[in-house]
Automatic annotation (TrEMBL):
PROSITE patterns tied to this protein: SAM_MT_TRM5_TYW2
Primary gene name: TRMT5
GO CC terms: mitochondrial matrix; nucleus
Predominant cellular place of this UniProt entry's protein: mitochondrion
The species this protein was found in: Acanthochromis polyacanthus (spiny chromis)
Family: Belongs to the TRM5 / TYW2 family.
Domain SAM-dependent methyltransferase TRM5/TYW2-type: residue ranges: 188-454
Binding residues annotated for S-adenosyl-L-methionine, in chain numbering: 277, 315-316, 343-344, 371
Reported function: Specifically methylates the N1 position of guanosine-37 in various cytoplasmic and mitochondrial tRNAs. Methylation is not dependent on the nature of the nucleoside 5' of the target nucleoside. This is the first step in the biosynthesis of wybutosine (yW), a modified base adjacent to the anticodon of tRNAs and required for accurate decoding.
GO term, biological process aspect, one: mitochondrial tRNA methylation
Name of the featured protein: tRNA (guanine(37)-N1)-methyltransferase
């Protein structure tokens, strides 16, 4: 009864806009309608029945007509909602806004303070978050105290706020458009100006709209692509389809302080590997030599060269090789990197075999990086008997960092077993295994690190049987 008519009307409107979820004991079925709009009854209901109201942020839900839209019509998202506001003198405006940080409206593109049309220019309206503030009693003790101390009138005003497409978040737009009850995703990976998504079948009819929304809502994204499931198994790049924006696939990214440029549709690049690149590069010192067997566009090779290592970097994909050379120049590392466009096995049995004998006589460390997780473990057999014509030495043997995927329950044991089998030498207790990342449910990317055994490098042809290894 003590509510003003205006407040009552506001609550009524709020009731219609909110979805009120209540946990009610089965025997205590109550009619929520009249209760929800009247505060004193509402408190009573809470007291008596322990109802737990949860206000969900449905107030910003776009008009229902947008459901099923496949071509983006931004105008259709425009609506007017009622939000509470406080009338505040300009003299204390900044302090009040600061004190009410948690209660003011927070929407992209919506101002928190607006000109109070009805009053003189000495006052402004501070717009409040309708999910947090439904009456004066919604303010916390500290907020209420601040309002008193700044002599803000204890009265809620109601402001008709026009919300447009620009004020909505991408999830809100997509949730309103895509079929109800089905998974809505606005997740994407960012590679320079390109956002790449992995849409499910039920999202495909909306693919261009999804692309447009992602582009609109993410500054700097000027191209959105969908990664189809077809992976080019040789070069590890995905087939992709442009959903929105310019069809410019040449991306520029920065990883661990190094700049890379490449055609994202024709080479391999994964922004989720930056920590792994850094982890390995940190083990490399000035003067070391690095053989990068599957170098891609250079994320191990170039940082290592910049640290002062001598690098031999190889990739079978002619496009990767081209961008690798480009990135060496871009980062002024070309004097430290020799690049090759060979099959990994040919690289090991060619340039690596040629360089290794001299390096083994030196003091600086030698690293071999093999990041082709789908196949690299199988390439380890290329080291068997590689130097069998040379005089064996124990000194300065190379450290190999070899990657592998595993779907095994015990991925550590699995990758060590497969590496041992390929080398023909048991690596158990002679290597370390690092979990890199989970790439899919039940599929892990691992890195096995070991000193290349002398027995493998110098074994003669008839020892290439791998008999010592249990398969
Ligand atoms: C998983 S990517 C890794 C690229 C880079 N090292 C990185 O960390 O981003 C593997 C790379 O191996 C290359 N590749 C695939 N098969 C190859 C082979 N048989 N010999 C040499 N390179 C190969 C691909 O073109 C691709 O660039």
């Amino acid at each position: 009864e003590n509510s003003s008519n205006k407040q009552f009307a506001y609550r009524n409107r709020l009731y219609k806009q909110f979805v009120v979820k209540a946990t009610i004991h089965a025997e205590l079925l109550v009619s929520l309608k009249p209760v929800a709009v009247h505060q004193s009854l509402w408190s009573e209901a809470r007291l008596v029945f322990s109802l737990k109201p949860i206000m969900e942020p449905k107030l910003y839900r776009p008009p229902l007509e947008v459901r099923g839209m496949t071509s983006l019509d931004k105008e259709a998202f425009t609506q007017t909602i009622t939000v509470p506001a406080l009338r505040v003198s300009t003299g204390v405006l900044n302090k009040v806004v600061k004190s009410l940080k948690k209660s003011t409206i927070q929407r992209p593109g919506v101002p928190r303070v607006i000109q109070d049309k009805e009053e003189s220019s000495d006052f402004r309206l501070v717009l409040l978050d309708p999910h947090r503030v439904s009456s004066l009693s919604s303010f916390s003790e500290a907020e209420a105290e601040a309002l008193r101390s700044f002599s803000v009138a204890e009265e809620l005003h109601y402001y008709e706020l026009k919300l447009t497409y620009d004020n909505l978040k991408s999830e809100e737009v997509l949730e309103a458009v895509l079929p109800q009850g089905q998974d809505v995703t606005s997740a994407f990976s960012r590679v320079g100006h390109i956002a790449h998504m992995n849409l499910r079948d039920h999202q495909l009819p909306y693919k261009n709209l999804i692309g447009q929304v992602i582009m609109d809502k993410n500054p700097g994204v000027t191209c959105v692509v969908n990664k189809t499931n077809i992976i080019d198994s040789t070069y590890r790049n995905f087939k992709m389809e442009v959903l929105a924006g310019e069809e410019n696939m040449v991306a520029k990214v920065k990883e661990n302080g190094v700049t890379y440029e490449f055609d994202f549709s024709r080479v391999y690049w994964n922004p989720r590997l930056s920590t792994e690149h850094q982890r390995v590069v940190q083990l490399i010192k000035r003067g070391d030599t690095v053989f990068d067997v599957f170098a891609g566009v250079g994320p191990f090779a170039i940082p290592a060269a910049r640290l002062g290592a001598n690098v031999l970097a190889n990739d079978l994909n002619p496009e990767s090789y081209r961008w690798l050379q480009h990135n060496c120049k871009l980062n002024k590392a070309e004097s430290k990197v020799r690049s090759f466009n060979l099959d990994g096995r040919a690289f090991i049995q060619g340039p690596l075999k040629q360089e290794l004998p001299a390096l083994l006589k030196g003091k600086a460390s030698v690293h071999v990086v093999m990041n082709l997780p789908a196949l690299a473990l199988e390439f380890l057999d290329a080291f068997r008997g590689l130097l069998h014509q040379e005089t064996p030495t124990d000194e300065n043997l190379p450290t190999v960092h070899c990657y592998g995927f595993s779907k095994n329950d015990d991925p550590d044991t699995d990758v060590v077993k497969r590496a041992s089998c390929s080398l023909g030498f048991p690596l158990e207790n002679r290597c370390s295994v690092h979990f890199v990342r989970n790439v899919a449910p039940n599929k892990d990317m691992m890195c096995v690190r070991f000193i290349l055994p002398k027995d493998v490098l110098y074994c003669s042809d008839d020892e290439h049987t791998g008999e010592s290894v249990q398969q």
